[in-house]
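To: structure subgroup
Subject: Chain for Friday's discussion

All,

I'm putting the inputs and outputs inline so they're searchable in the archive.
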Amino acid sequence: MKSLGLDRWALSTSIIAVLLAGCGGSQPSVGAPGAMPQSQAIARTGIVADHVLPAWSYRVLHSFGSGTDGSSPQASLLYVSGMLYGTTAAGGGGYCGFGGSYCGTVFSLTLNGAEKVLHSFGRGKDGWLVQAGLVRVNGKFYGTTVSSQAYCGSRNGHRVFCNGTVFSISKTGVEKVLNNFGNKPGEAASPWASLVYVGGLLYGTTAGGGASGGGTAFSVTTSGETRVLHSFCTAGADGCGPVAGLIDVNGTLYGTTPRGGRYGVAHNGNDGTFFSITTTGKARTLHSFGKGYDGYSPKASLINVNGILYGTTAYGGAHGYGTVFSITTSGKYKILYSFGSSGSPCCDGQNPWAGLIDVNGTLYGTTAGGGALGVGTVFSVTTSGVEKVLHNFGNVGDGYGPYSALVDVNGMLYGTTECGGTYNSCIVGGTVFALRP
């Protein structure tokens, strides 16, 4: 497991079991190409180096971790009418055990950095552990939680918790659980990704559950009626354990899995696939990651730029530290850039867990590791593969370990880091930042 996100995974051992069940494998071992930076990278946090952009270029808008504030944001922000809306995986005023409040929040933030917690998860039969961002439908926000505090039946005479939720929330913070994912065989379990709204329905993926326990694609109405469309990891070159959201291209959904596929044993099972699925559930594997110097283990949603899809892999490529790639809807695949070309840890980014955004034909993204201080970057890359590091995380008061895609608001990029900020931690910390490229 990657050390920058160690606190993220330590929140629930049951979640780790869900991700590994039926899908195989572990991440690259410590020190291997593609492995996330270890403790020495965190130890470097706080070093003021000559890699800082001018003050006007980058700014921390908000540091999480004060009181009942949220902490450890890992999802992309949503911009609506002058405000940013987002989620945190931990923190807030709810209680989920583990010695403190680690349930997560929904928050709003002005572009000047004034933050307000709209909802704290973990109260009553609420969900908890929010890895996904929000989607807006008809004035309401919809999202998912990985775990739930509601009970879904019993096993061996003991009540068992449900495996995540779909929820709605208003701008004023009125939250409602629409669906609790169950524990029965074949049911979807543990959604990590954001939802997408297509033709009156919300669509998403779960990392666990389904016919083989290897994850699902599902649909859900805005009132909570859920249907499993496809079970992953069932046979042949199918993918396993999707943690990325879906994208709609002309009525067909496209996505990735971080495991499985034709080359599913090449990297301890952590190879992955690119797939399409119709809204009625007909799925097709279009590309298997992991062959040769290919990238592998894609963990982020794709974007559509003029009919071509673009994405990232967390590992692999020419140097082992991840890639930016393009792929057509028919599966024609091309690596645009391989991370790690400048050596380790300086100065290229490494291990992009987040997706990309398109701003006037240039792609922008984040890496969770690498860079001048070893704890992540913001980068740009052209569609022809020319990459540039825009910001190196890890200086005093800065965030580090970004796991979410950016959002563009009138030429300013906004994003989150899981760790760092004023409180310089992963368990109690994290930031929202702004950067002008």
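Points worth raising on Friday:
The first strand starts at residue 58 and ends at 63.
The chain has one domain: 6-435.

D.
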